[in-house]
């Protein structure tokens, strides 16, 4: 497709033309299904919270506040779907978002530092929302950064190399929570062996590190 022809059609990129011709740019959200997903999310995280040795958080309010911001600010289209239904993308994204809220006190306790939202997708500023690779949490001085990942399927725990940062001026951690088995680990990225990265076919060949089972411990 020539650039001139694309401009005559009124599009700035070939991808937008493809979406237009295939009607992929038309998206009707099933909000009733998302309502059901919200109730399941509340049930999931309230159930998990009962197993944590920490003061309880108001899970329902956290989820409904996030849902309100997402729906009122048209954020759902910004959650890249990789071919999946937008409702499914919402559910999985919310699992990660609420996991950060739920497990932050445990991470602060283990690292002995107060942490704050660091990523651009924390919903505190809806107009600036974006999905970036910034670590989820950081301390006030930006000398400690934490990336959180939560799993719900009970499979092995893999970390993408693209999520790993190492610095001489700050400590970077990956906090992995296996919600299926009730276990977790908080790894300093400097401790990940360079010779144990492998090409993961399940993640389109991305380089990954599998966390040894003995590193995972119960959070009770």
Give keywords.
220 residues, alpha+beta, six-stranded mixed β-sheet, three-stranded antiparallel β-sheet, 5 helices, 9 strands, 18% strand, globular
Explain what this protein looks like in three dimensions:
There is one protein chain. This protein starts with a helix and ends with a strand. It has five helices and nine strands. The protein is 34% helix and 18% strand. The model has no long low-confidence stretch (mean pLDDT 89). The protein has one domain (31-218). The strands form two sheets. It has a six-stranded mixed β-sheet, covered by helices on one side.
Side-by-side strand order of the widest sheet = 1-2-3-5-6-9
Main sheet: strands, sense, barrel: 6 strands, mixed
Q: Runs with pLDDT <50, length 5+?
A: none
Q: Level of helix content?
A: 25-40%
Structural class: alpha+beta
Distance between the termini: 59 Å
**Helices and strands, in N-to-C order?**
HHHHHEEEEEEEEE
Shape: globular
- In total, the number of strands is 9
Kindly report the average pLDDT value: 89
How many domains comprise the coordinates? Answer: 1
Helix count equals 5
What percentage of amino acids are in beta strands?
15-25%
Radius of gyration: 20 Å
Describe the secondary-structure layout:
Elements (H helix, E strand, L loop, with lengths): L2 H7 L4 H9 L8 H19 L9 H14 L13 H26 L4 E2 L19 E2 L5 E8 L6 E3 L10 E8 L4 E6 L9 E3 L5 E5 L6 E2 L2
Parallel strand pairs: 3-5
Antiparallel strand pairs: 1-2, 2-3, 4-8, 5-6, 6-9, 7-8
Helix pairs in contact: 3-4, 3-5, 4-5
